[in-house]
Amino acid sequence: MCHAVTVCTPDEVWAVLESAAQASPVRGPRDLAARLRVAEQLAGRSTEGRVGDVLEPHTEVPGLYAGTPSVARTARRIRAQLHLQSPIFRHAVRLAVGVVLAEVIGRSIGGWGGLGISAHGFWVALTTMLVLFPGYGHTMARGWGRAAGAVLGGLFAWMLSLPHWSPTGLAVASVVLAAASFATLRTRQLMLNLWLTTWIVFLIHHVGGLPGPTAWARAADTVVGAALAKLIFLVWPTWSTRRLPGLLAEWLRVQDRLLPELLTGYADVGAADLAAVDALRARSRQVREHMETAVEQSHGEPAEHRGPWSNAQLEQIRTQVSTVAGCATLLGEHLPRTPQETVPELTELADPLHVHLTALARAAAGAETVAPGALRSVYDSFTARSGLLAETSDGTKSAATGRAVALSTATVDAVEALTATIASRHRPRRHAAA
User: Fold this and answer.
1) Angle, nearest 10°, between helix axes 214-235 and 122-131?
2) What integer pLDDT is reported at residue 106 of this predicted model?
3) How far apart are the first and last CA of the chain?
4) In whole angstroms, what is the distance from residue 350 CA to residue 171 CA?
5) What is the pTM (predicted TM-score) of this model?
6) pLDDT tens digits, residue range 294-345?
7) Which contacts (CB < 8 Å, 24+ apart) does range 233-237 have?
8) Which of 345, 349, 348, 310 is nearest to 327 (CA)?
9) Which secondary-structure segment (H or E) carries 332?
10) I need a surface site. Which of 29, 249, 278, 377 has the fewest CB within 10 A?
């Protein structure tokens, strides 16, 4: 038997591989060796390029995933959002205007005719800043919860201001209220603001010597700030459901360039432009990230702002987009490294896939409709004509060829599933692409 510390002959090496293959699903030592070569390729690719941009740095092997420096990556993301069509930029402007307006209103209100604290008008601005979020659902939920919590907390604090407290009782009550406030920091706004308002007003009354009605001034400031935040959002809204068709169309346009590039990369070693592939994959991740955020935010929006797909369909689209993205990743990771791994027949699929994805992007934006099954029909004709499926099933083709055919089949299946969901849009109206 061959051991690591001895010199092995080729026959002994194959004997070891043969014994290992008996307990493995692979078909023999040559198949096992092919799989090991694939594993070596993947391991080599994991330290190339800018994998660190999408993977967290390894805690045990510093520098394994170097990637782009975080400062440069952050600066690039900020630059990408500096335009009026960006929801993040729109929210930044909306938040800046809202907080300034809330500060002016808070200062104008003053101390509510002596019931409150004249220098604490910033409570209005603080509430506006904490309530106003990029999405409708979060803004409305935080507005109602924070306002209701402040009113209930003000009532509780006013009740606590009625009895006389001994120094010991005052200390114990302050500690209990502080503990309740910190214990509810990660709960919803209603419970958090209830205990926070009670604690703050209790201290202001008993330590600052202000009258009990100060509790109502604090609650009123919070209600005004929450109402202002919701009003500002409704005056200048960002409806995620209206953005989704454009985001989906933009993502499909990226796939329209990425997937054909990957398929043509199987024509020969080095046929794919890896720099262009990396750039397209990075752009795909960015658009997909925005699209998934928009899907989550759309669930909380009112019915009159619903887009062309239901909530269930949007979740299907999100899952199917993830599947297509996974297929693209695998196609890129298994690009041929040796002439034996090339599958030039796959380049024939590049043009039909380009045509289908171009039409699908227009369909997602509402410009036209695409009937499911067209791409599948082209692919079935291709596989029947090329004979790739028959050759891979009877083992006459290499494992690399079988893997490439399986990945192309999975890609077509994923695109067809996404096509069927996009075609099921229930509200036939046009949406401008993002």
Assistant:
1) 40
2) 86
3) 65
4) 75
5) 0.71
6) 999 888 888 666 778 888 899 999 999 999 999 999 999 999 988 888 889 8
7) 233/94, 233/132, 233/136, 233/139, 233/140, 236/90, 236/94, 237/136
8) 349
9) helix 311-333
10) 377
